[in-house]
Amino acid sequence: MLTIAKKYTFHASHWLPEHDHCGDIHGHTYHLEVMIIGTRNKIGMLVDFHDLDEVIEPIIDEVDHTNVNVWMNGGYTKYSVNEFGDPTFSFVVGEDPEPPTVENMIVHFAEIIEDTLPEHLKLFRLRLWETEDAYAMVIPNSRLNEIHRVLS
Ligand SMILES: [Zn+2]
Questions:
Q1: What is the pTM of this model?
Q2: What is the pLDDT of residues 47-101, one digit of tens each?
Q3: Ligand 1 center to 119 CA (angstroms)
Q4: In order of start, what are the domains of the chain with their CATH numbers?
Q5: Which contiguous run of DSSP H or E holds residue 56?
Q6: Which residue, 68, 74, 131, is CA-closest to 105?
Q7: Distance from Cα 117 to the centre of ligand 1, integer Å
């Protein structure tokens, strides 16, 4: 089994409704590690890291410097001017929005990345760090089934 991985960084805000510590809007520097499984091509690469960037960076660009509550729930940021003439904004995220916990975010990322990767590349593992020492991880069920099949 051969894998390669690359880490991508983005900055975003979020809030977790009804959460004591994370209920107010705040920001994180997230790190998303994308691990790919496959076989080497004739020049000895599973995939050129530059080619992986071309797939993953547009996904990162969609969430970088945004509000994750909006990104995850297909909402939008509404700008207006208040009674004092100051610019103000609010987030419109629709009904029953999914809270952007690191667990929900990584499931969202895994769905997008699996749908976006070219046929010859398979997502093996995804890790999303919300802080320097805390992350969530996803291994798609199809990969676990493959590993089980190989080992049994
Ligand atoms: Zn947070």
A1: 0.89
A2: 999 999 999 999 999 999 999 999 999 988 898 998 999 989 888 988 889 999 9
A3: 34
A4: 3-72+99-151 (3.30.479.10)
A5: helix 49-63
A6: 68
A7: 28
